[in-house]
Write a structure and sequence with these properties.
The chain is an alpha+beta fold. 40% of the residues lie in helices and 27% in strands. It is globular, with a radius of gyration of 16 Å.
């Protein structure tokens, strides 16, 4: 099942460290078949509050590879370049199968309770 790493970026200090992070992140994704789907594009908050800078969405073939990418030595090496210069929230989340319908999820949850 496809999985995603999502980040909501509240603030960022763009400088040499963040530039280096951005130059190096793609190479960390390649071994895990990760790819950017969203990278701080135009956005509009429809409900609630959201980060001022934007969002990032990275797709992986499955949850295990998404988690393995984040924990990989290559990504952990560049992670401080981002965390020292950015305030963000991040999660890894499993997707749903093709053709998924919300009613299926409601039925499954009702069976759990």
């Amino acid at each position: 099942m496809t999985a995603y790493v999502m980040a909501q970026i509240h603030s960022a200090e763009f400088g040499p460290d963040l530039a280096e992070y951005l130059e190096r992140i793609d190479a960390t994704l390649d071994p895990f078949d990760g790819r950017f789907l969203i990278h701080c594009g135009k956005f509009e908050t429809l409900e609630g509050s959201w980060g001022e800078v934007g969002s990032v969405l990275i797709e992986f073939p499955d949850y295990e590879r998404a988690r393995a990418w984040y924990d990989s030595p290559a990504y952990q090496e560049i992670l401080p370049l981002r965390t020292r210069n950015m305030v963000a929230d991040g999660i890894v989340v499993e997707g749903v199968p093709a053709g998924y319908r919300a009613a299926e999820g409601a039925k499954a949850r009702a069976g759990e309770e």
